[in-house]
């Protein structure tokens, strides 16, 4: 039997955060397959889209810290504060940057089409941030995963002590 401790440790919190972000990215790939009827694994490594993997990851980390340390702990307060900053950035600043990129791409396209010039230029990435709904769905995913992991781990540890 291994002495590795997972339940109620930082490993559990880290696993939940990374697992939620990974799951959100996997959901984006599945949504793309369903809506476009083709596979595009590039979606797995891109930002933006439904649900927000940034939000899922930080909220899962915060929820896990709350379950382990207590929702009234300093560690949870720090973690949720960090999560709120990330969520604001995802739906605010990065979303605004994506809209700006879309406008610039459209202006450059119009300029070159009117002047009949063909100049190579880099198209700016437009899908950077998230809508409030995408952030909300990421938050829900980030809250659910730690509860599943924590209580599954609790049940497993409890059954080991009984048997």
Tally of contiguous helical segments: 5
- The 3D shape can be described as elongated
Helix content: over 70%
Rg measurement, Å: 20 Å
Total number of distinct structural domains: 2
SS class: mainly alpha
The biggest beta sheet is recorded as: none
What is the CA-CA span between the terminal residues? 13 Å
Oligomeric composition of the shown chains: single chain
- The beta-strand count equals 0
The pLDDT mean sits at: 85
Content of β-strand:
under 5%
- Parts with pLDDT < 50 across at least 5 consecutive residues: none
Account of the 3D structure:
- By secondary structure, the protein is mostly helical.
- It folds into two domains: 111 residues, no CATH class; 36 residues, no CATH class.
- The chain is 71% helix and 0% strand.
- The chain is built from five helices and no strands.
- Helix 1 packs antiparallel against helix 2 and helix 3 packs parallel to helix 4.
- The longest helix has 31 residues.
- The protein is elongated, with a radius of gyration of 20 Å.
- The protein starts with 9 loop residues before the first helix and ends with a helix.
How are the SSEs ordered, and which strands pair?
Elements (H helix, E strand, L loop, with lengths): L9 H27 L16 H17 L4 H18 L1 H22 L17 H31 L1
Task: Give a quick summary of the entry.
This protein is an all-alpha fold and 163 residues long. Helices cover 71% and strands 0% of the residues. Helix 1 crosses helix 5, helix 2 (53-69) packs parallel to helix 5 (132-162) and helix 3 (74-91) packs parallel to helix 4.
């Amino acid at each position: 039997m291994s002495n590795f401790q997972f339940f109620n440790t930082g490993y559990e919190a880290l696993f939940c955060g990374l697992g939620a972000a990974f799951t959100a990215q996997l959901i984006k790939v599945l949504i793309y397959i369903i809506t476009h009827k083709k596979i595009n694994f590039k979606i797995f490594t891109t930002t933006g889209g439904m649900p927000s993997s940034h939000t899922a990851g930080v909220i899962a980390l915060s929820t896990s810290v709350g379950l382990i340390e207590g929702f009234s702990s300093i560690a949870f307060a720090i973690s949720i504060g960090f999560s709120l900053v990330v969520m604001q950035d995802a739906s605010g600043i990065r979303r605004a940057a994506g809209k700006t990129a879309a406008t610039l791409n459209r202006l450059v396209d119009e300029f070159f089409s009117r002047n009949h010039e063909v100049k190579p230029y880099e198209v700016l990435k437009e899908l950077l941030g998230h809508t409030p709904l995408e952030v909300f769905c990421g938050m829900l995913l980030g809250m659910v995963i730690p509860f599943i992991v924590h209580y599954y781990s609790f049940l497993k540890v409890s059954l080991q002590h009984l048997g």
